[in-house]
């Protein structure tokens, strides 16, 4: 494609906006086209239940923003982005009344895990201490010359293991469940290779940065990126649905913040046959069923740490969560699904309206699950917080098909834009030296289907922009 010094980005999610900023910093004139009327993709915030109570639509807690090698170069605090941290980063309640508890301090976390504390410290001490160096490699495509090869190799040996194998390091239900809840963010069975990777990375990030939230909601991340892009001369147009590459004006570079199947639809016969086949074969994972609550007085957790935790993982023991994750991969809805809960207002009280607080929760469900899982989610919460239903004054739900309608990248309700299979953890969206290249000159894919995968870190967009700039022989800004 020609187009001199212009660039077009299709999709204004975090990766699209990050890619747009990277291109604009390099001197290109960038236009972002967004199909929805509001930018942000999964990082949007609004009043979903009762007036004055702010709910994040999808992404809610953001350890990987602070761990992003690209976003941390942008100075987004100049555009109003402020981080808030809860007293307790993560709690995982058990039926005994106890809980596994993670705080930013590795020593404090280890002390709370009793006999499992030393093993927790041995595993996560080196990972968290070297997190910045590690993320510089992990946030890039698998095929690259590593900057820290020894550290990367050490992490890789553990990350390739099943989560079930890593969990054998610990003897107590609290430690094993604490790791299980984090590992479950992968939406992948614990017995499968590579299922430990995301659990290791997110736990290490928690000990390095904590699990913070953005003041005012996740939309603050979107707003800051958009403001920076505007300062760099970029523009954003909403309500523009692109159905074919032929609709786009000539441009030196085009970045597509889209799922692989959507890229294949958009490109049509311009896409090389081998790439089209790979994009059509790309696998999407299980779905999410979200329940947003407005709760008078907050959730009456039985465990004290849960009442102070920004994030609560609800699912019981390691074995229970492992069973639930196996079931959703078999297309069956568990009686006790794994549920993620965020209580962002504990760190950011401005999201509440008086004593009515937003509670964000979603359950893992089978891909495309069309049913209503509201009662199952509330049952799981009541299991550890009896009396919750009596405090609910507002409720909004979004099913797996609802997520797909909300954001076309969430195929079948897959909010991480791709199954974390062994192959797709290592090589996504296809096997290629440059996974961002579509095979069409000047056109690149930059969604969460590209390395390093899901999360609000912007690295899919930043890496795709670097790939485009290399092809254009334009120096890459750090």
Automatic annotation (TrEMBL):
This is NAD(P)/FAD-dependent oxidoreductase. SUPFAM superfamilies: FAD/NAD(P)-binding domain. It comes from the Bacteria. PANTHER family: DEHYDROGENASE-RELATED (PTHR10668:SF105), PHYTOENE DEHYDROGENASE (PTHR10668).
């Amino acid at each position: 494609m020609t187009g001199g010094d212009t660039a077009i980005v299709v999709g204004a999610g975090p990766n699209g906006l990050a890619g747009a900023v990277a291109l604009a910093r390099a001197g290109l004139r960038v236009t972002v086209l967004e199909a929805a009327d509001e930018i942000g993709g999964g990082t949007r915030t609004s009043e979903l239940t009762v007036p004055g109570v702010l709910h994040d639509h999808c992404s809610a807690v953001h350890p990987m923003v602070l761990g992003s090698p690209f976003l941390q170069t942008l100075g987004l605090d100049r555009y109003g982005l402020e981080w808030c941290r809860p007293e307790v980063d993560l709690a995982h309640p058990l039926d005994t009344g106890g809980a596994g508890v993670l705080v930013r301090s590795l020593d404090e976390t280890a002390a709370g895990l009793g006999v499992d504390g030393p093993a927790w410290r041995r595993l996560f001490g080196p990972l968290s201490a070297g997190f910045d160096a590690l993320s510089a490699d992990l946030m890039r495509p698998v095929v690259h010359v590593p900057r820290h090869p020894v550290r990367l190799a050490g992490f890789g040996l553990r990350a390739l293991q099943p989560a079930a194998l890593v969990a054998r390091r610990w003897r107590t239900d609290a430690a094993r469940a604490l790791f299980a809840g984090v590992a479950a963010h992968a939406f992948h069975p614990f017995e499968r290779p590579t299922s430990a990777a995301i659990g290791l990375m997110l736990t290490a990030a928690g000990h390095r940065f904590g699990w913070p939230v953005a003041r005012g909601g996740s939309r603050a991340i979107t707003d800051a990126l958009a403001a920076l892009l505007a300062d760099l001369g970029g523009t954003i147009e909403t309500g523009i649905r692109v159905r074919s590459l032929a609709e786009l004006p000539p441009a030196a570079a085009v970045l597509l913040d889209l799922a692989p199947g959507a890229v294949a639809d958009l490109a049509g016969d311009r896409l090389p046959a081998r790439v089209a086949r790979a994009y059509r074969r790309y696998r999407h994972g299980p779905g999410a069923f979200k329940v947003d609550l407005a709760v008078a007085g907050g959730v009456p957790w039985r465990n004290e740490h849960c009442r102070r935790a920004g994030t609560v993982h609800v699912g019981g023991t390691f074995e229970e969560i492992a069973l639930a994750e196996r079931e959703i991969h078999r297309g069956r809805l568990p009686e006790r699904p794994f549920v993620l809960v965020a209580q962002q207002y504990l760190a950011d009280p401005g999201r509440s309206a008086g004593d009515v607080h937003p509670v964000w929760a979603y359950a893992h469900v089978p891909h495309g699950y069309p049913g209503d899982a509201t009662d199952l989610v509330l049952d799981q919460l009541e299991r550890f917080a009896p009396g919750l239903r009596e405090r609910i004054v507002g409720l909004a739900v979004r099913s797996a098909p609802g997520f797909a309608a909300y954001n076309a990248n969430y195929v079948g309700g897959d909010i991480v834009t791709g199954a974390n299979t062994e192959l797709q953890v290592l090589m996504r969206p296809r096997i290629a030296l440059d996974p961002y290249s579509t095979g069409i000159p000047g056109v690149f894919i930059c969604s969460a289907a590209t390395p390093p995968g899901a999360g609000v870190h912007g690295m899919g967009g930043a890496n795709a922009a670097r790939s485009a700039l290399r092809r254009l022989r334009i120096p890459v800004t750090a």
